[in-house]
Design a protein that fits this description.
This protein has about 350 residues and is mostly helical. It is about 70% helix and about 0% strand. The protein has eleven helices and no strands. The longest helix is centred in the C-terminal third of the chain and has 31 residues. It is flat and about 65 Å long.
Length: about 350
């Protein structure tokens, strides 16, 4: 039975996906500093347009001349992110009001509020720390986290996806491993994007015509980079960016092998629809990743690659949710443990 708040959770999930894609579009159009302040833009709620507003912007932000298109890319992202925050707050208020009702999730909506507050802070630091890669990557991960938690909340409120009890512990472990690997690959993708390493290699399957090109992993994954420089366009040299790019490729290979094993196991245990959905999401993401390299990162394909990453992550969230241990089984197991301890 569908619970109150389900439709609002679904709307919020769709909006979260849009916010993730708008964030990718903002990064890929180099508009992350389209507004040099936060939460406004040159001190206004929109991009300066009138002569008076432009004069104010030039006087107070002489180091950041107004680029209207980049400013609007950034502000539209902020508008939608702010709207998403309000929807999540509404979901939390609903959960608090209905907390005495059976099977009403409470911790999850409150966790979402905390994540959104953290996301707002990372959004501010993205600007004030001038696209410091650590913050940009954390901001991207926060967006994917918000999206995943909203899908989980939607699934719980739907009442339509009971756990699949008759599955093996091995399948559950493979699903959990697949989810962890995809999260790691999303983080690597964020590191590639924030360090502008997506075009560090422009050939496949080799890089610069070599299977193992010159790479600087120490600087590529130096997580205590100096705060202060403007990281728009990146600060790393070619070998460091190549190391980041190749790590993402190797991560993609590892994820592919793990998810193929998971899909095979799903089919073995008769879960053909989940296996097919996983293979579809995986195949789409691999195709988009290859296209990004061969076509030299066209904007539409690069944004679609972010969407593909989100789709793959959500697929793993769905699979793990369906494979969860039923409540009565957990209670029985807990009771057995307590009984053995009392003997």
């Amino acid at each position: 039975m569908v619970k109150p708040g389900y439709r609002l959770a679904v709307i919020a999930t769709g909006l979260a996906l849009l916010v993730v894609l708008l964030g990718a579009y903002t990064r890929l159009t180099h508009a992350g500093l389209g507004c040099p302040d936060w939460p406004g833009c040159y001190g206004f709620i929109g991009v300066p347009q009138s002569e008076m507003q432009l004069a104010h912007a030039e006087l107070n932000y002489p180091q950041a001349p107004v680029e209207a298109q980049k400013g609007w890319n950034e502000m539209i992202h902020r508008y939608f992110a702010g709207s998403l925050g309000l929807l999540i707050l509404a979901l939390a208020i609903q959960a608090l009001r209905r907390r005495t009702q059976p099977e009403q999730p409470l911790k999850l909506p409150l966790l979402l509020v905390a994540v959104v507050i953290a996301q707002a802070a990372f959004g501010m630091w993205t600007v004030t720390l001038k696209l410091w890669p650590q913050v940009v990557t954390a901001h991207l991960l926060g967006g994917f986290t918000t999206l995943s938690l909203l899908l989980l909340l939607s699934l719980r409120l739907s009442g339509r996806w009971p756990p699949l009890a008759a599955v093996s512990p091995l399948l559950r472990r493979l699903a959990a491993l697949g989810l962890l690997l995809v999260i790691g690959q999303v983080a690597l993708g964020g590191w590639v994007s924030s360090n502008y390493a997506a075009v560090a290699c422009i050939d496949l399957p080799t890089c610069h015509g070599q299977w193992w090109p010159a790479m600087d992993f120490a600087n590529g994954f130096h997580l205590s980079q100096h705060i202060g420089p403007n990281y728009l366009g990146g600060q790393l040299d070619s070998d460091a960016r190549t190391a980041i790019h190749m790590s993402h490729r190797l991560g993609a290979l590892l994820v592919t092998l793990a998810l193929l094993a998971l899909a095979w196991r799903l089919r073995t245990e008769g879960l053909n629809k989940l296996a097919g959905l996983l293979l579809l999401a995986l195949g789409l993401q691999i195709s988009l990743g290859v296209s990004n390299v061969l076509l030299h990162l066209p904007l539409s394909v690069a944004v679609a690659h972010n969407a593909g990453g989100a789709a793959l992550l959500l697929t793993l969230v769905l699979i793990n949710y369906r494979l969860r241990v039923p409540v009565h089984a957990r209670q029985t197991s807990f009771a057995a443990v307590v009984s053995q301890g009392a003997m």
